[in-house]
Amino acid sequence: MNNATIIAVDAMGGDFGPSVVVPGAIEAARDKGIALLLVGDQAKVQAELAKIPLDGVAYDVVHASEVAGMDEKPSDILRRRKDASIQVACRLVRDGQAHGIVSAGHSGATVACGMFIMGRIPGVDRPALASIMPTEKNPIVLLDVGANVDCKPHHLFQFGLMADAFARDLLACESPRIGLLSIGEEEGKGNTQVKEAYELFKLAQNGINFVGNVEGRDIFSGEVDVVVCDGFVGNVALKLSEGLSTSLGRVLKRELLSGLLPKIGTLLAKSAFRRFAQFVDYAEYGGAPLLGLQGIAFVCHGKSNSKAVRSAVKLAATFVEKKTNERLVKAISANEELTRYGKAIK
User: Which top EC class is named for this enzyme in its record (predicted)?
Assistant: First the structure.
């Protein structure tokens, strides 16, 4: 595969497995000119490959005899399912055969395998899941959205440093505005965790553009580029926004089809509604990167379709090509003393 960017894809992951993962990954490889390692049951993967055009795509199939069950504990998957597709994919990165992985399978297993097989970047205590969220202006990064439900202040500080590097390269922000999610904008608002993290951000080096506290209502205004919180709060915020957009879409559809005049108006505004649907579609970005690993791991929604998989694979390739991990390492190293100071706070 020469010197191409190589992404290992967990072909067995997600609710639909190879039937959507394989075609989505192949489309991404064709679009980006990258190479793929499709990891999973060889017979099932080959059966899906036979259904689609493969001209101009560099790929290989890596057999894995097991699949991480959604009802299994991540620790059990690590110990007992050595040939699970997600484990095999992570070992490919660890061994230098791939630059990153994409999986729509068991998110907990992906996080665990990423940490214990691929390994963490030196200085990173807790890798964090970063979700790209639509706003009134430009997309923003929200993290952590579920990898770490119990966090110390210095963990939040590290999340912000990692998100800064991600936003610069993947969202093209020259100086990402970083906000700390709290119950009020004023300095001093929030719990002990947030207050202490605030102090660390104020002292950050390496050009970190910390703008202070932000409230939940500010997430979608587009006034910041990064919103930092612990994984418990972030996951609630993410699921709340997903549920709200789905419900709003249903209500809007019901109201627009309730009579003749609304139906006529709907037809006239069809292109606007199409753009709105695209705006709230999670498949536009594909998945959440797990920042802080040696290599990149993208965790996709279990219900991901081919479009979502394609988007995630393309983003993972961009992450590799931009050498975002190198920027992330520099930011962590430049603030090593602050992280040590944060650990010392009781």
Answer: transferase
